Amino acid sequence: MSFSYDAKSEMCKLESEQSCCEKAECYGLLLCAKSFSLQAVTLVTEHSLVARRAAQLAAQTTGAIVDVRTAVSFHRSSYTLLVQEESHRSQVLSAFGHSGQEISLRVNLANLENDCCKAAFLRGVFLSCGTVTDPNKDYHLELILPYMNLAKDIMSLLREGIDFHPALVNRKGAFVVYIKGGDRIADLLTYMGAGGAAMELMQVRMLKEVRNNVNRKTNFETANIDKTVGASVRQVEAIEKIRDTVGLEVLPEELRETAELRLENPELSLRELGQLFQIPVSRSGVNHRLRRLIEEAENLK
Ligand SMILES: [Zn+2]
To answer: How remote is the CA of residue 173 from the centroid of ligand 1, in Å?
Structure first.
């Protein structure tokens, strides 16, 4: 199953807390679902646990009769929670202080009685209309809402207290509140009660960082080897030019020794080459002699 699916499963397994929070979670679930009006109270989900939890909470906190229908097609199941009777829909709406006549839905903050309720409400919202991307691909969590004002109200809740830095985008007529960044998403998942999913996200991120560091290091070492090889090739070419024209014998003793050692050991670094001299020479000493050899070669017509 997907990362998002697992995060939702984890949230659905949370034991019920205080009744104020159960009501707040139920409110989040229904308010941000497909419809929340006198004509229809409907939540559609692919997650059986979400449907079951929403139905239980709704029945418990509003007393309405709630049905869940299952539609199974070839590769996916879908669950629809609905309230059939209009009188029961009215009962659900009034339980949360809504009339069902609102042109644009807003969050009725009276349903978030205590400080503890905000997390439960946001969990309900996420279960209802949220998804979180697999951290192996991206750090992205989004909530897809049908109304601009509702989206803005939820953004303010995501900003106050702990600021999760939400942003808003309009996608095909829907209002998408999204959060980017591994840290923020892990914090929000923890806040909503999915500490396990948050932990998994952090582990994936750590592995990615280790992998990137290894790649960076390997690239750096490869570049250094290329540099050494490139320099050695130029030195060997210069020495061969001297050997094949005037001969190495005309060189002063220390340059002749350098030239011969380099020809025999083109793969060695300057430091390693320096160790092979009769009287060992420092890295910069070897470098200096090789430069002089290159100059000598350039001076040859
Ligand atoms: Zn509460």
So the answer is: 33
Q: What is the pLDDT of residue 44?
A: 95
pLDDT of residue 273: 92
- Judge contact between 168 and 152, C-beta under 8 A: yes
What pairs with residue 144 in β-bridges? Answer: 176
pLDDT tens string 238-281? 999 999 999 999 999 999 999 999 999 888 889 999 999 999 99
In a domain, 43, yes or no: yes
Whichever domain contains 38, its CATH number is 3.10.28.10
Cα 61 to averaged position of ligand 1 atoms, centre (Å): 13
- Residue 51 DSSP code: H
Percent of the chain at pLDDT > 70 equals 100
Tokens of 221: 């070492």
- What's the CA gap between 58 and 261, in Å, rounded? 86
- Ion ligand 1: residues, Cβ under 5 Å: 18, 20-21, 114, 116-117
Residue 261: give the domain boundaries.
Answer: 211-299
How many Å lie between the centroid of ligand 1 and the Cα of residue 96?
14
